[in-house]
Amino acid sequence: MVQFIQAQNIGLAYLKERFGLQLAEDEVFFTEWFDNLPEITDLEKQYLDRVKLHFLRLVKRPPLSEETVKLVVLSLLLNLAGFYDKPFYLRGEQSIEISAEDEGEVIRGKIDILVIQEQFWLLVIESKRSSFSILEAVPQALVYMLDNPSEDKPTFGLVTNAG
Known about the structure:
The chain is an alpha/beta fold. It has four helices and five strands; from the N terminus they run E-H-H-H-E-E-E-H-E. Helix 2 runs antiparallel to helix 3.
């Protein structure tokens, strides 16, 4: 009998045991986040400051829901990054199902935001309300990234509680 597990209930130990995921601590494992980045323009800095101002104003009156975090922070950052323009497109609430081989378990969930370029999953985003620890979203995002149909290409993940 198959057991269904919600992605939000998965922990890092489960992912390590069932899928062999390992924490990479080598600083040069993922250099894309700090090598050859373009300078942020003054206009972009003003835009980011405005996003921060909006968030800080809202966080003073909790609770700040996951949906509000997506509207106030993520939608503006996706726009600034150019993910609403060609060649990208977005999908919200993308359903996934994955299973470990011969384990009799299927993990189900919904990706908050998926950025796609052609058939290539570029970015998986999982957001949580502001009161959640960011670490609670990491296993869920990793589960979603495991469902990438292009296993030979990297998938980037972003987790946020906008904190």
